[in-house]
Design a protein that fits this description.
GO molecular function, one term: electron transfer activity
Keywords: Heme, Iron, Metal-binding
InterPro entries: Cyt_c-like_dom, Cyt_c-like_dom_sf, Cytochrome_c_Peroxidase/MauG, TAT_signal
Protein name: Cytochrome C oxidase Cbb3
Structural class: alpha+beta
Length: 632
């Protein structure tokens, strides 16, 4: 069938679906692959029957989460389909479909696949958008890095909503943590989407400003140039808003600098994206590159899952924390986010007489909670408490507080990376080199991590991400959570449970959060699934390109069609000469400099000057690439 006939067929399907939608009023869909379509259907065994605020237990206690098949099934479903309502922020406030990318062009690109599947959906530009002096022209193909499974008409990790004539798109965990493998034609659950070009897609949105606090814009003052654009503050005064066009242009530059396969999850007014991690999480605690998610259910994994939706997929929820996080009045903060909102019902106009919070409240789908997503609110809100970065717990209506986060934790802990076979004699040699070179000194235990957070100056990597939660220290609250099974909405008068925090754990979490006078740090990562997760280190800076050239640095990877070579990138991690070339290439790349991607640090070598022969180094690399799950 020719492309025109395929488009006509797809148009007929869409028209029929549109008629059904008009009749029903609302519907949504997110793809979830069948087990037969997985490259890694094998699972880890769950060692405990209950999780009690991060402690394994054989019997129920206060705060216990029962680990069973029902929890696992809900976890897998939530991983692929749960948005917690972020489609409203992404569509109506950020305008992901109102900039260079449009619903029509995304649908067209999906239709033209004709069921083939892809690791990089290319979408035509619908409207010209200028980023950092470059204009993306109508018809130009954008490499989004969105993955589409074979036979699907929807990208992995995208949930599409039809709501009485309005289409929205929300994101789920699978967007970043599941990948289509063109080699096998199957989906790798838990693998990071290494070419997901989320920074560029956000830069091409109509209101990138809604995410400006994740970029290097330490002050709005240089943008407050129009004395007529003001907003009433909570204190009864008036303050200028930033010029919307100037701030938008600056925000686009910062977002577009993120390399494919990375994401800036910290609203710290600094551009410092981190490489998307895998979800092969069993025995890998603490979580997050800095180790900030180390307390609470599933040894901090539920805190990490919650952070994505309570902090990263709805920036309007940070309004009450704006005074101590950004030095801004909440109305100034919200006005900044909403003055370019593509949806008229969410757009703030300084001349219409309402405050930004009143504009938000009038259309908020969750009027009883901060922001737009679905949240249970802890008494500590809007302050952090070492379990939740802002006192919010993303929760789906109709189930207990935090249940989906805990369920996803159980599911992720069951995931194993695809088996990558190698000759036994090579693996044996590689293991010997691993021991001899001292790698096992930190990378020990079932998942090849000793669970420590190491000070940033000691590990030597770029330090800004390690300090991203430092601003929360002045308002920090003791860690607590609602008990497992607490109904949502939370009944009035419901008390929370304190989350245990020993002195040893406190020292580590303070280092992870760059508090108590510490410089911040990075956790010792587990080594499961390295074949799926190149490039390496927290900034993704240890990168070597594919093909015979094996060009060093992230430059060759800025086109998402070219992923890093896992074996050569791992070699750069342990070979000082190759690493020097990688670092030099990164320093020479302006985009890497903007994103603070260096590839520096972790100066632990297994190379010729360290007494490791080239064949031994190659065996070490093969051994590392073979690690597919916790050793038992």
């Amino acid at each position: 069938m020719g492309s025109s006939r395929r488009l006509l067929a797809a148009a007929g399907i869409l028209i029929a679906a549109g008629g059904l939608a008009a009749a029903l009023g609302r519907f949504s869909h997110a793809p979830m692959p069948d087990e037969a379509d997985l490259a890694n259907p094998q699972r880890n065994a769950e060692p405990a029957a209950y999780d009690v605020l991060g402690r394994a237990a054989a019997a129920p206690e206060p705060g216990a989460v029962r680990i069973d098949d029902a929890l696992f099934r809900r976890g897998r479903e939530a991983f692929y389909r749960e948005t917690f309502g972020n489609e409203v922020f992404l569509t109506d406030v950020m305008g992901m479909l109102d900039g260079a990318l449009s619903l029509y062009e995304v649908s067209r690109a999906l239709t033209l696949l004709a069921g083939r599947g892809t690791a990089n959906l290319e979408v035509r530009v619908a409207r010209p958008v200028t980023v950092a002096g470059r204009t993306y022209q109508v018809g130009e193909l954008i490499p989004t890095g969105l993955d589409v499974a074979r036979g699907s008409l929807f990208p992995l990790g995208i949930r599409t909503f039809y709501d009485r004539g309005h289409v929205r798109m929300g994101i789920t965990c699978a967007l970043c943590h599941a990948a289509f493998d063109p080699g096998t034609g199957k989906v790798v659950e838990g693998a990071p989407n290494r070419d997901l070009n989320v920074g560029l897609m956000m830069a091409l949105a109509s209101n990138t400003t809604a995410y400006y606090m994740h970029g290097s814009t330490p002050s709005l003052d240089p943008f407050r140039t129009d004395p007529n654009r003001t907003v009433a503050t909570r204190g009864g005064g008036r303050e200028r808003l930033p010029d919307p066009e100037a701030l938008e242009a600056a925000a686009k530059v910062q977002a577009a600098s993120w390399p494919p396969g990375s994401f800036d999850s910290s609203p710290d007014l600094v551009t410092n994206p981190t490489s998307i991690p895998s979800s092969f999480t069993a025995d890998g605690h603490p979580y997050g590159w800095s180790g900030h998610a180390g307390l609470g259910p599933f040894r901090g994994l539920s805190a990490l899952n919650n952070n994505v939706h309570a902090l990263n997929s709805d920036t309007t929820a940070q309004a009450e924390a704006a005074p101590f996080l950004f030095g801004l009045d909440p109305e100034v903060y919200l006005g900044t986010l909403l003055q370019r909102a593509p949806s008229p019902s969410f757009r703030f106009d300084p001349q219409d007489g309402r405050t930004p919070s009143q504009v938000l409240k009038a259309t908020d789908p969750t009027p009883d909670a901060p922001g737009l997503n679905s949240y249970a609110v802890l008494p500590s809100f809007p302050n952090a408490n070492y379990v939740t970065t802002n006192g919010l717990v993303a929760t789906s209506p109709g189930e207990p507080v935090g249940y989906a986060n805990d369920a996803m934790s159980a599911f992720q802990n069951a995931l194993r990376a695809p088996f990558r076979p190698a000759p036994p004699e090579i693996l044996a040699t590689g293991r010997q080199v691993f021991e001899r070179a001292g790698c096992a000194g930190c990378h020990s235990g079932p998942a090849y991590t000793d669970h420590r957070v190491i000070p940033a100056p000691e590990i030597g990597t770029e330090p800004s991400r390690a300090r991203s939660f430092a601003r929360t220290e002045a308002t920090l609250r003791p860690p607590d959570l609602y008990a497992a099974g607490t109904p949502f909405p939370v009944p009035a008068g419901t008390v929370t449970l304190p989350v245990p925090l020993t002195d040893a754990a406190r020292a580590q979490v303070q280092l992870a959060w760059a508090q108590a006078g510490t410089p911040g740090g990075y956790k010792v990562p587990n080594l499961i699934g390295l074949a799926e997760s190149a490039p390496y280190l927290h900034d993704g800076g240890v990168a070597v390109g594919p093909g015979p050239a094996h060009a060093p640095g992230i430059g060759p990877l800025l086109d998402p069609a070219a992923g890093a070579d896992p074996a050569e990138s791992l070699r750069a991690l342990v070979d000082r000469d190759l690493r020097a070339k990688v670092i030099a290439a990164n320093r020479a790349d302006p985009r890497a400099a903007t994103a603070r991607v260096t590839g520096e640090g972790h100066a632990y070598w297994a190379d010729a000057p360290g007494g490791v022969a080239p064949a031994e180094q190659a065996a070490l690399v093969q051994y590392l690439l073979s690690l597919d799950g916790p050793a038992r």
